[in-house]
Specification:
single chain, 453 residues, mainly alpha
Amino acid sequence: MAPLVALIFFSVSGGAYGIEGLFSTSGPGIGLLLLLVTPLVYSVPHAMVCAELGTAIPVDGGYYHWVRRGLGRFWGFQQGMLSWLGGFVDLAVYPVLFTNYLQSLVDWAAPGKHVLFTAGHLQFDLHWFVCLAVITACVLLNLTGTAGVGRTSVVLAVVCLAPLLLLSVAGLTHVLGDGAGPGSVAQLTSRPDQSMANAFGAGLFLAMWNYSGWDDVSAFTGEIDNPRKNLPRALALSIVAITVGYLFPALASLTLGADGPAGWKNWHSGSFSDVGGALGGPWLRTAVTVGGMLASAAMFSALLTSSARVPFVLAQDGYFPAWAARRTPRRQVPVISLIGSSAIYALFCLSSFSSLIVVDVFLANITLLLEVAALIALRVREPDLDRPYRVPGGPLGLSLVALSLTGVCAWAAWQQFTENGTRAVTYCLVAVGACALLYPLMARRRRLAGAEV
């Protein structure tokens, strides 16, 4: 149970590292509200969907098989490809976040600081080579197998959360000893002319990113001991741990107020290092920075475990070449898929943190809605399917889950469109269109390869 919870924890969260921009974007009051509301309307419903489908169909490549079985091969292929393409963006976030924390300790790690060579518009600097080193280390860890990644995640969870616990204690001491208080919470939005609706919408994508990834564990469900029993429990424990892990460091950090280098108005990814320095001095600053770096690496490693299985199962199903389904003889790690995917993630590390997140959440929400549709379709088409866990409440409960997830995803997409224009929407439409056009070619290849119908 502990390694499974740790893998889910790092697939979704990794601690409060990376939530800093939520408060400078939406304000302290709305930021805290988002941390409380998002799990209720987004994480809990999605975890319920994953628990039912994951226990009913407990196989490797879970969400691909869920959608294929519920909606057919075309939609299953879309789910697999869009999840894999989303991984290009999603997994690139974490090496970038690692290096963002590192640059608070060493100036040379800043983006564009030391450019070694260029290729067209791409700049390969020391920032990117640090990202490449993180990816290489995580690939080597993944070659030890899922169990090895899970055990390592347990250790890293303790190491990464300890600085945040110390940060929370330092914030409490600041309140009790110096008479400070989280008065910033009374300011709901980030600026006086920002409406509550706009503040909520502006921060929703970042909140959703920090609470997404519940289906990633399904990619290796076949390797979990007794998943029909352990998966729902692990998902429930992870939701509680992640929500608490966000709230306490945020409340402690808000005691510093709005202004100054560590004030919430100036927060961005990596700013908890400055908060640690302001609350506890250089030692806490260093501890928080190292914790953020290790959490980012652990999140990349956990997500690599799941994302590398997607091209593997597509190869098993005949869409990709058979050599892409090769596994190491002892640990059964999909080595070709693992290394090939990691090379693509390294190229996407050349993008910025914020732009990666927006595209990531768009693609994640598309695949999430396909999972909801598959759940409903399987309820209708296979009512007698053994479901050790069911979304409670019967048809009404299922309808509420579907409406909650659809409504949140649609509203977040609209808010992002009105705030930032068509760029992210265009990228996602291109990805969806390319996957749809690719299917006939891959289906023909599958038939010629003699795969089972």
